[in-house]
Design goal:
By secondary structure, the chain is α/β, with parallel strands linked by helices. The chain is built from 14 helices and 14 strands.
């Protein structure tokens, strides 16, 4: 009997909000101090403790954090920034806004991570910064990338928007160098909207604090007093990128549960991998070979038209008819209209990026999902592919979900 649509829509992601989270925000609302204040200070302290970074600064979004950072590093006209095209377009947009250009690098076909060799080959005398992306919760091979940046005297920024809780060779992402995190509602923890920068460069951190609040010589909130001194003056033109306490209180509460949320995501991903193993036409991402702990931010499959009998966009549309939501992470930056018209990349220059950009699809995966939800998603995928003319396959025998080390 054909599968009928779910009675309620299942999104590809839903934030995990508890009564404790709600109480934390409510407490701020009752405090009389809802903009940047003690909760922002507490969130920054918690991020420092979690990552081991000596400096942590929060912003109203990850994009705002990246904008301030690129500005602080002097990225501007004539500069190039080496970064993958297989990422959200905000980074390349910011590079363009500042007058520089993105030098897009290809990614590994299976992990969607940029390699040290691809990055090294893309460096020119104009290269001012390198921005590798820890994609979907998996870390890039950072040691050789750091060697490339250091040997060339180039700024290195880790795009860790997907990587809160990720580890690389036993070290927490954020423990080294300069990293940008995101706390958007689809991320592993959320502050509603929000982002953070961790860094070992204390002079850079001081500049960022100044830039994020109008270029003033002090934050909107100083720990020793409520508010700031009336004598504070603008040191340089700055932004309005500070995070309110309402957002920070949610971030503090969520960060306490990061490990539990990550473990649940890990178990869901491993179960998906088993259930999808016998289905031709959908291929999950691979994982890096170097030692790491995956944050499992997204569960992404590639829809293979030659085996599936349909293309990715139709696959997504048919799942939606069954009330199963999907996402696209991401349409490669260089294939967006503005970049096609103003920064064209020769066809075939980024073969792995373009192959994946046409096939990737994010299926539902978030801590609040049940195994019954997962079973429905997999059954829906089978039905969509069978209806498209793919040879039918029998479902695999269910196996117990056993937690293992990451």
């Amino acid at each position: 009997m054909p599968l009928q649509p779910r009675p309620a829509f299942l999104p590809f992601c839903r934030p995990s909000i508890t009564e404790e989270d709600i109480a934390a925000v409510t407490s701020v609302l009752r405090s009389g101090w809802i903009t940047t204040g003690p909760q922002v200070a507490a969130f920054e302290d918690a991020i420092r403790e979690r990552t081991g970074a000596p400096e942590a600064l929060v912003f109203i979004s990850g994009t705002a954090a990246m904008h301030a950072l690129l500005t602080a590093l002097g990225i501007g006209p004539g500069d190039e920034v080496v970064t993958p095209s297989m990422t959200w377009v905000s980074t390349s947009n910011l590079v363009e806004i500042l007058g520089a250009r993105s030098a897009f690098v290809d990614v590994d076909r299976d992990t969607l991570l940029a390699s040290p060799d691809e990055i090294s080959r893309s460096i020119t005398p104009r290269t001012k910064a390198i921005i590798p992306v820890h994609y979907a919760g998996a870390p890039c091979d950072m040691d050789p990338i750091r060697d490339v940046a250091k040997s060339r005297g180039i700024h290195l920024i880790e795009d860790a928007a997907h990587a809160i809780g990720t580890q690389y060779r036993g070290r927490e992402i954020g423990a080294e160098g300069t990293c940008v995190f995101s706390f958007h509602p689809i991320k592993n923890i959320t502050s509603g909207e929000g982002g953070a920068i961790t860094t070992h460069d204390r002079a850079l951190a001081a500049r960022l604090r100044q830039l994020r609040f109008h270029g003033l010589a002090a934050d909107a909130f100083e720990r020793g007093q409520q508010g700031r001194s009336p004598q504070v003056e603008v040191q340089e033109p700055g932004f309005k990128f500070n995070m309110p306490d309402m957002n920070a209180a949610l971030g503090v509460s969520q960060l306490r549960r990061l490990d539990a949320l990550t473990e649940r995501r890990r178990d869901l991903c491993r179960r998906y991998t088993r259930l999808l193993a016998g289905i031709p036409g959908v291929e999950p991402l691979g994982e890096p070979s170097w030692p790491h702990r995956h944050a499992h931010h997204l569960f992404i499959v590639r829809v293979l038209p030659e085996e599936a009998g349909l293309a990715r966009d139709e696959f997504m549309a048919r799942l939606k008819e069954l009330n199963v939501g999907t996402g696209l992470h991401f349409k490669a930056a260089h294939v967006h209209r503005w970049y096609r018209e103003h920064r064209p990349v020769a066809s075939g220059t980024l073969p792995n990026t373009e192959w994946n950009s046409e096939r990737i699809c994010t299926i539902p995966m978030f801590p609040g999902m049940t195994e019954a939800d997962q079973d429905f998603v997999v059954a829906a995928i089978r039905q969509v592919l069978d209806a498209a003319g793919r040879p039918s396959t029998a479902p695999p025998t269910p196996t117990p979900c056993v937690a293992q080390g990451s």
